[in-house]
Amino acid sequence: MWSVAVFAHNESLHILRCLHSLMDEASNIDVYVLVNGSTDNTYEKVVAFAERHPWVHPVAIAIGCKCNAWNIFVHEMAPASDAYFFLDGDCHVYPNCLAELAKSLALHKTAYASAAFPAVGRNKEKWIAELLQSSIWGCLYALSPEAIRIIKTNNIHLPVNAIGDDSILEYLLLTNFRGGKDDRNLERIVPAPEARFHHDPISFLKFTHYIEYYKKQVRDSVRWLQCQILITKLKREGVQAMPESIDQLMILEEIGKIRLRNGIDGLFDRLALRKVLEKIQHP
Fold first, then answer.
1. Which of 139, 173, 142, 141 is nearest to 158 (CA)?
2. CA–CA dist 31, 142 (Å, integer)
3. Residue 60: exposure state from Cβ atoms within 10 A (0-12, 13-18, ≥19)
4. What is the enclosing helix (H) or strand (E) of 78?
5. Which residues pair with 57 in a beta bridge?
6. Gap between the Cα atoms of 260 and 276, Å rounded
7. Rounded to whole angstroms, how far apart are CA atoms 69 and 216?
């Protein structure tokens, strides 16, 4: 059997499509839908779906944080399984997607993770190029039982309120969950090109889509700032320096050390920096 964690925060519009896409592999999976901090009716929709499909298990989590939900699943809920899958609730998978991820793990005995590929998107080719270089994308990936065992044994948690769960996990995988500067253990992450998922790309046909794009870019820059500070610390001090919350590191002393990027990324970095500083000054 396989275990699937689905992360859903206010995903009322997408969650049923996500769950329906898993039905082809339903005989071999247990799906835990981690509805975290939702204020819409996502949870009610999952409960109604689960009444007809017992392989789905609704989980209500008060805090709206993917990293916190990830910690709860891995450390408190994940049963013994042949493979573990992590899927965003606003995505849906293509046929045999999970099987392809599991196959990639089985074919590469030294791998801790396998990465699925986006089927659509404006930046699809860029993402695929990155995924082919031992990277993972948070929309969908798989972890091996050995990876889960190491995470549990060493009590490794992702920092609460961190945005870049996949970037943090990727770094941990490439350092054999030790942290430090040796992050070139590329055999730990393998691509699964035949494992495809769909994530709706942002369209620019409506004004609201521009607002959505703006918010996403600022959020991505906050993520970049957080990861710069966190991974620098982990490279210096090892995985034992992982904070309980990313907020513990987002202080003026650490932020002042970051060199912002140039170009359009730099513009959003500055907007993100202003947002982070406002949170520090008005917690």
1. 173
2. 13
3. middle
4. none
5. 32
6. 14
7. 21
The two three-digit tokens of residue 10, written as one number: 């206010």
Instruction: Classify 141 as helix, strand or coil.
Output: strand
Go through the domains of the chain in sequence order and give each one's CATH number: 2-199 (3.90.550.10), 207-281 (no CATH)
Q: Is 110 helix (H, G, I), strand (E, B) or coil?
A: coil
Q: Which helix (H) or strand (E) holds 270?
A: helix 263-281
Distances (CA, A) of 251 to 226, 242, 270, 278: 11, 15, 16, 11
Q: Is 117 helix (H, G, I), strand (E, B) or coil?
A: strand
Contact (Cβ atoms closer than 8 angstroms) between residue 49 and residue 22: no
DSSP code per residue over 225-251: HHHHHHHHHHHHH-GGG--SBGGGT-S
Split at pLDDT 50, 70, 90, the class of 204 is confident
Q: How far apart are CA 169 and CA 270, in angstroms?
A: 26
Q: What's at 84, amino acid-wise? A: Y
Q: Which of 174, 175, 219, 196 is nearest to 128 (CA)?
A: 196
Q: Name the CA radius of gyration of the chain, rounded.
A: 18
Does pLDDT of 207 surpass 90? no
3-state secondary structure of 33: strand
pLDDT by residue (tens digit) across 144-190?
999 999 999 999 999 999 999 999 999 999 999 999 999 999 999 99
Contacts of 281 (CB under 8 A, 6+ apart): none
pTM: 0.94
Residue 257 DSSP code: T
Strand order in the sheet with 91-93: 56-61, 29-36, 2-8, 84-88, 140-143, 113-118, 189-199, 91-93
- For residue 76, give the amino acid letter: E
